[in-house]
């Protein structure tokens, strides 16, 4: 692999070339045709797709075909609960919510507290399981109807997955898994089995309904290795190949290509207080000039600016976004002003989010798949 960047489900290093990554993984770029077809079926194209945050896929066109023919399909995504949720994590969940609303489909959501325990030397099961619950609050806060969101917490709900995971594991050789994930002799054996569990959920809807249910997985591009393997073995197990929709990584406020959950200053957590959000935004890297005078004269570069990127993430209004772009390019707005605007947007988003999050606290059980199956 090129040494300029390195992407696995557990690690992203360097400056990511999204085209090259697609070539390497073998997924496709979203083209105008698919996007237009989505628009005509849904009545609009969600801004996260329109603005290119979601940029690639496998068989998304087939899902549209399935939807068009009125055949059953469902969504699947998940989260490795290693800590509190930052606003970058919300991106695929926000899109999933849109699909739920527009197409009336259900979302299966996997909390991999097992994976995060296995993957991090220091992590305890108590911690990762606790975060599975805490992170569920952020998910529920996005407003999913209770009958459309099914949360699976791996360490507690293994019963619904285990038989499927065994069938998957039996088809996956060590050599395929090692090559796909870059495992080595020192990788613990829990992590080696784990991909079977993440793949299993893609087949769960079919098992539960007892008929073919196609599955669409919105996820960040680093999750592709799992679903590549899932697609390789799906049909031999009698399941439809899962389709995927991939997003770029959300930049950190420091300007790195991925917001890191381990560097607190580089990400905005849904649990941050107003003061620290303000500080993080005000200290953010920007595409601006070193001085106000130069900024007025030459304008800034929104295309490399995380502050502009966050405006695009949290403001659905295209007119606002176009104005910020032009004003930045033309030197009519300074970075401090632009950051203040962003702070206001994130503050209003989080005000609603945090309230909804607290309201969800005693309702998590209502969204658990295991409780609904009982
Ligand atoms: N492995 C993912 C992570 O570390 C969590 C996950 C489980 C997931 N199932 C998924 C992510 C399906 C996207 C789609 O975050």
Record keyword descriptors for this entry.
Rossmann fold; two-stranded antiparallel sheet; Tyrosyl-Transfer RNA Synthetase; alpha/beta; 374 residues; single chain; binds tryptophan; 2 domains; seven-stranded mixed β-sheet
Q: What is the compact description of this entry?
A:
The chain is built from 17 helices and 9 strands. The chain has 374 residues and is α/β, with parallel strands linked by helices. It folds into 2 domains: 5-253, HUPs (Rossmann fold); 264-358, Tyrosyl-Transfer RNA Synthetase (Orthogonal Bundle).
| Ligand identities | tryptophan
How many structural domains are formed by the residues?
2
CATH fold topology of the largest domain: Rossmann fold
Helix content: 40-55%
Number of strands: 9
According to CATH, the homologous superfamily of the largest domain is HUPs
Q: What's the CATH first level of the largest domain?
A: Alpha Beta
Q: Helix-strand pattern, N to C?
A: EEHEHHEHEHEHHEHHHEHEHHHHHH
The CATH architecture category of the largest domain equals 3-Layer(aba) Sandwich
Mean of residue pLDDT?
Answer: 94
Portion in strands: 5-15%
Number of helices: 17
Order of neighbouring strands in the sheet with most strands: 3-4-9-8-5-6-7
- Structural class, from helix and strand content? alpha/beta
Radius of gyration: 21 Å
- Give a quick account of the main beta sheet: strands, pairing sense, barrel closure: 7 strands, mixed
Distance between the termini: 47 Å
Which runs of at least 5 residues are low in confidence (pLDDT < 50)? none
């Amino acid at each position: 692999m090129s040494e300029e960047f390195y992407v696995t489900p557990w690690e992203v290093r360097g400056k990511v070339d999204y085209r090259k990554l697609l070539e390497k993984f073998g997924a496709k770029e979203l083209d105008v045709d698919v996007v237009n077809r989505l628009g005509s079926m849904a009545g609009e194209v969600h801004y996260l797709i329109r603005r290119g945050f979601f940029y690639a896929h496998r068989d998304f066109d087939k899902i549209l075909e399935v939807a068009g023919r009125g055949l059953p399909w469902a969504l699947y995504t998940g989260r490795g609960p290693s800590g509190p949720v930052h606003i970058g994590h919300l991106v695929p969940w926000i899109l999933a919510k849109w699909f739920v609303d527009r197409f009336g489909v259900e979302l299966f959501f996997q909390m991999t507290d097992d994976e995060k325990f296995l993957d991090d030397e220091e992590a305890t099961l108590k911690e990762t399981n606790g975060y599975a619950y805490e992170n569920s609050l952020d998910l529920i806060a996005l407003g999913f109807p209770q009958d459309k969101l099914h949360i699976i917490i791996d360490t507690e709900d293994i019963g619904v997955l285990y038989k499927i995971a065994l069938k998957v594991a039996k088809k996956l050789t060590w050599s395929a898994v090692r090559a796909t994930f870059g495992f080595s002799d020192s990788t613990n054996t829990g992590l080696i089995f784990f991909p079977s569990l993440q793949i299993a959920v893609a087949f769960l809807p079919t098992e539960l309904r007892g008929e073919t249910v196609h599955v669409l997985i919105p996820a960040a591009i680093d999750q592709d290795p799992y679903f590549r393997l899932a697609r390789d073995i799906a049909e031999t197990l009698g399941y439809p190949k899962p389709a995927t929709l991939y997003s770029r990584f959300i930049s950190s406020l420091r300007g790195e290509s991925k917001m890191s959950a381990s560097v607190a200053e580089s990400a905005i957590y849904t649990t941050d207080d107003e003061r620290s959000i303000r500080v993080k935004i005000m200290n953010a890297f920007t595409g601006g000039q070193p001085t106000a005078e130069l900024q007025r004269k030459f304008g800034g570069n929104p295309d490399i600016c995380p502050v502009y990127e966050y405006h695009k993430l949290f403001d659905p209004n295209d007119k606002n976004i176009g104005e910020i772009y032009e004003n930045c390019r033309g030197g009519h707005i300074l970075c401090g002003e632009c950051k203040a605007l962003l702070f206001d947007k994130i503050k209003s988003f989080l005000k609603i989010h945090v309230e909804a999050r607290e309201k969800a606290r005693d309702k998590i059980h209502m969204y658990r798949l295991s409780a609904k199956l009982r």
